[in-house]
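Quick question: what would this complex look like in 3D?
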Amino acid sequence: MTVSRLSQLSPWIDMLVGVLDRQSMTLPARIYRRAEAALILIGLLAMIAFTTQSLTPGEHLLASAVLIAVMVLFLIDALVRVALSRPITLRQKHRAAEAGDTPWAGTAWGALDVLTVLPMALVAPFSWTQTGAPLLASLWLLRFARYSGGGRMLATVILREREPILGVLLLFGIVLTGGAVLGFLAERHAQPEVFTSVGAALWWAITTLTTTGYGDMVPVTLFGRMIGGAVMIGGLGTISLLAGILATGFSAELKRTEFLRSWDMISKVSFFENAGAATIADVAALLRPRDFPARSVVTRRGQPGDCMYFIVDGEVEILIEPKSVRLGSGAFFGEIAILTGAPRNATIVTTKATQLLTLDIADFRALAASRPELTDLIRREAELRLGKGPQ
Amino acid sequence: MTVSRLSQLSPWIDMLVGVLDRQSMTLPARIYRRAEAALILIGLLAMIAFTTQSLTPGEHLLASAVLIAVMVLFLIDALVRVALSRPITLRQKHRAAEAGDTPWAGTAWGALDVLTVLPMALVAPFSWTQTGAPLLASLWLLRFARYSGGGRMLATVILREREPILGVLLLFGIVLTGGAVLGFLAERHAQPEVFTSVGAALWWAITTLTTTGYGDMVPVTLFGRMIGGAVMIGGLGTISLLAGILATGFSAELKRTEFLRSWDMISKVSFFENAGAATIADVAALLRPRDFPARSVVTRRGQPGDCMYFIVDGEVEILIEPKSVRLGSGAFFGEIAILTGAPRNATIVTTKATQLLTLDIADFRALAASRPELTDLIRREAELRLGKGPQ
Amino acid sequence: MTVSRLSQLSPWIDMLVGVLDRQSMTLPARIYRRAEAALILIGLLAMIAFTTQSLTPGEHLLASAVLIAVMVLFLIDALVRVALSRPITLRQKHRAAEAGDTPWAGTAWGALDVLTVLPMALVAPFSWTQTGAPLLASLWLLRFARYSGGGRMLATVILREREPILGVLLLFGIVLTGGAVLGFLAERHAQPEVFTSVGAALWWAITTLTTTGYGDMVPVTLFGRMIGGAVMIGGLGTISLLAGILATGFSAELKRTEFLRSWDMISKVSFFENAGAATIADVAALLRPRDFPARSVVTRRGQPGDCMYFIVDGEVEILIEPKSVRLGSGAFFGEIAILTGAPRNATIVTTKATQLLTLDIADFRALAASRPELTDLIRREAELRLGKGPQ
Amino acid sequence: MTVSRLSQLSPWIDMLVGVLDRQSMTLPARIYRRAEAALILIGLLAMIAFTTQSLTPGEHLLASAVLIAVMVLFLIDALVRVALSRPITLRQKHRAAEAGDTPWAGTAWGALDVLTVLPMALVAPFSWTQTGAPLLASLWLLRFARYSGGGRMLATVILREREPILGVLLLFGIVLTGGAVLGFLAERHAQPEVFTSVGAALWWAITTLTTTGYGDMVPVTLFGRMIGGAVMIGGLGTISLLAGILATGFSAELKRTEFLRSWDMISKVSFFENAGAATIADVAALLRPRDFPARSVVTRRGQPGDCMYFIVDGEVEILIEPKSVRLGSGAFFGEIAILTGAPRNATIVTTKATQLLTLDIADFRALAASRPELTDLIRREAELRLGKGPQ
């Protein structure tokens, strides 16, 4: 928000803001993100190479150079981002809050940007090899976190299923401690140099409970092996429970997120504007949002038609002869193939970054059963289009 | 129950009972529980340290002192709990049972308290190091069990899915025994000093079936390796099946528990008092109970609004100018943000320990489709409030 | 069926048939089954002991004696079962088939009985130790198979999800073979004595893919370790997929089996006799069948009431003063606790082996919403009973 | 399509096309596919044998001969397939595309056929042992891919759940890199010859994260073991999440695929031709398609009846006396057993390759509740048939 206000100052800043905007689908912004991803991977490889002892001094130097170069680039990126967001005074911030704005949205991500590069930048000047500065490159991987809705969803699921997850962890702790103490009692006389203490036995118990089984500590007595077998089976049960809880929570959260995203997008599609709340709730559960960059192919002539599309925002071009047709926000297409079962009769490409909602053929049929009035509308439009020419 | 009768005797006992009550949300009770948790963890660490051989005699003594101190504190706690529940004579117990009361509810937990500390207290006076008394500190971990609904839920699921779980365990047993006998036959001539008996082969089979794979016993013959591969794949199948059964059961039990808890709480919310059974059944499946301690923030001004709240018990304060508003049991709030899509227009805090039911925005919309009369009521109230000022 | 005809010949045979009937819930039959289970476990322990090299000759002899004794008992059991089913001539069998009967039902289990004991009986006379006869005791574990519906259900799920399971196994095979060949190529020069052939590499690949990881074969080259990492992650994916397929299939099969069992039982409950197909389908999805042996406690006075019961077959006694009440097939009980929320007001025991259908409190409330006429009937009966005295 | 045009040229080509058609259910085509599968497995075994060092020169030669023979057969197969599809000129292709045809359908599979055999054929002439040509036989396993819908379904699920899967992989990457760097820091002084570099620590981290645990690198310091334990638990969480995502996606995709397949088949069954869209959508969710080759037994007299059948395409023969009855496409059978609960009263076999839709008894009853008009039709037909004689 503040960034967009700033952007009125100069077209250069305008462009910079556009490039740095991580939600933007424009070409420069996407290239910038790709470049950042490449830099992260290159930096990680250089870090791994740096610690390899078989490197020649020259290769060692090269790895250091790469690391420092990437660090400097990330520092510049962080400085520019901070600079672009600096002009917000406390007073502005207050006013924005009054207006219901969330001016510091993205600050968490901004802090992440700074945090991933600052430690290395602070430590590097003192000593490059003694301080282990190159290893701090591993922090850069966290920069990917922002591109993934998965991480946020994971956090939500863990928060929501907090109680059963804590229950499983408690169970885990009880089996772990109990197994370690019993294993220690069973093995301390047979292998006093291996099962030296409860602490050592805890290490054995955790490698056993997670079924990792390094083999550095292995029970040899009958009682120790029975404890070991019980801990293994307890491990399987715990993994199973955890998988069950996370799977259940994840599935529900996935459905919920898609429902909300679809609901918001449906309100922008003119086709649904007269539909009641009940209809929209039904439809929102079926539609799946998809983003297409500009000039990308949505459907290809001759392919089987397994879904139809509603345009939320953007524009598509239907490549038919003699003259291509363009459809804008609110329109739908691709319905002919799912009504007739024939393959796509035209290739369709986006002319700019476009948000679509897709309705799967299976869901279309289920919808035809429960909301015939909606699919009848689509059917009538399809008949009109077929009368006019291929869609 | 009996505890509450006793509590009329004296304000001191009153306070003690309140502090020791494990369902209580008052500050002293919560501090007491936190302190107990800290003691358990300190005790466990002292136990682990005690067995470490590299300790100096001084450190050894310190670990012992910590263990004994924690033990004494838990003993006192157990004695106080027993003392507070002692006045129930058999006759009182009988009368309580007649009245439909369950006076000994919590006795199972009380017994657990005693059981976790008694063995060590009994053994310690005789010999501290010879009897392994310090290792009994591992029992203290069981004291956490009471705080977790997860354990109880786990027991319910295992009980309910008893039959398929037994089926999987039988399968497990058949693969285990079969694998051990075949592995013994395959390897006894090639490695007579490793695969010495069917018992030893059973240990190999269980480390293989659970995919732990210590590597202390590894087949070397072609036939032995084929058996090993089959046992591993059998292990994956068994884990998968177990995960499937537990996940299915857990998911159903979770839904059932929340439904019952919501149902009980809905009956206390005045908003739903005229709703029929069908409506309540629908709503109970959607609402999620949440507990807030006193003076905690429920929503913060400017945050996105993703759910609305019904107050079951307690009170919240809406921090708006010029004058804050308080809402008590039965009221609802937070509906404006989900109706308008705007961020929260006020920070809301609890004034005392408060039980809320939350209705997610996705579920609100689904409810609007199936029970429009309910959401219309909420909408009308929101309009009233918006007319009066920010909520 | 034929067995029941035979049983008219003599009361002795009658009793034997009753004892041997594996579906029977009578006391002698249950004791016989318990004894058989104990014999299987004793036999397995004797088998494991037999191969242990540290045994004294006396212990060795004891283990042999136990094995032979159990074998003889199982042989007698098999002979009696065969004898009891012998009189069916081919003609009788044909006639039974015409009548829609399935006279050889149970023959598969009968064959299993014979197969688990015959090999040892045939081999033992020639040589006890040379032929490995004692190891054949591991077959006895298969005798448990009949008591578990889990195994049958597993078979159904595997059959039904045949195609996706084959797909996963194919994927497994491709990753396995590809991993083995690439691992062989990567490691054959670095560790020629370990990765000797593709066959050896296959053993490495399967221990890696199943994440068993014995550690007897470990890649040391960079390329070998990258292959290893890829195979491990492929293994996790494969396990996840398999778990997903089995979990989905198992959950569906579990629901289907319970639905059918409930449906069959509902038809015997008089309360539902006037209900239409739609109602029965609804109810059958909610009820869960449970078997109680004679003189077992169904509910205990003072316990919380979380479900109500319908009697399919058998009889229960409600222990109230002054005089206990008995309810027979078709009646229901336990509805008062779920209607009022109070704890059980009476202890209820079975007087003979009894089949009940339980309706969970959560499902009762959901049913009250969708089928109020049913729950109203239950409510009215409860009011009658409360008028008459505690239930 | 083009293949079918070609087939007018000559009956020989006709036959060849039929045999090579991988969707065909005729006997020669099925024998050809079985033979191909056998050849793949024989080839793989020969490849594994070839690299075994303990082979005699003669056995070595035999393995080579088998490999070359299978390679030549697959080459011929590929050439014939290419030859049969050659006559399509570019112009024909263009015209077919205009007509909405997909003439190159199957080309992807065709390319696969060529790709699995071409590399070996190209490399083998130069040097058989030096180039590792025999190892290329592992590519043949990919030929199975086409028979499995599982692979395609897997691809769909991975594509659809792309975002959460990427989120999990990112999490995986973060735990892996972080674990490796911390593990390296913890262990490099204690075991400098084992934890030599971050690269080596990465190998340790991946064997730990996937719970493989070879044991070639094991932390020995307290801090290293704490890192190890955290990585293991992180591994369990990651596996659980992945399992949850894949299970959810797979279950939805499985349902969707079956729904679409049933929908297409229902339209060919005359019984449903007057049913509305809502009914068909309901029924399609319940029916399961099954393919039977010619002369296979569908139901056997005396077996319990757990489903009924609709004939989509093909013919079945009901073996009753005095005269068998034949039913063709559009008919249904097996309804008597599920209506009466009696076992099947006749054995039913297919006379040619037949596609059936099965309706499970549980689903039939649920359908009876929601669509009584459909099941009434079936009931009436059953009464007619029972009047005429056994079905």
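Answer marked as accepted. The domain at 2-147 of chain D is CATH 1.20.120.540 (Four Helix Bundle (Hemerythrin (Met), subunit A)).
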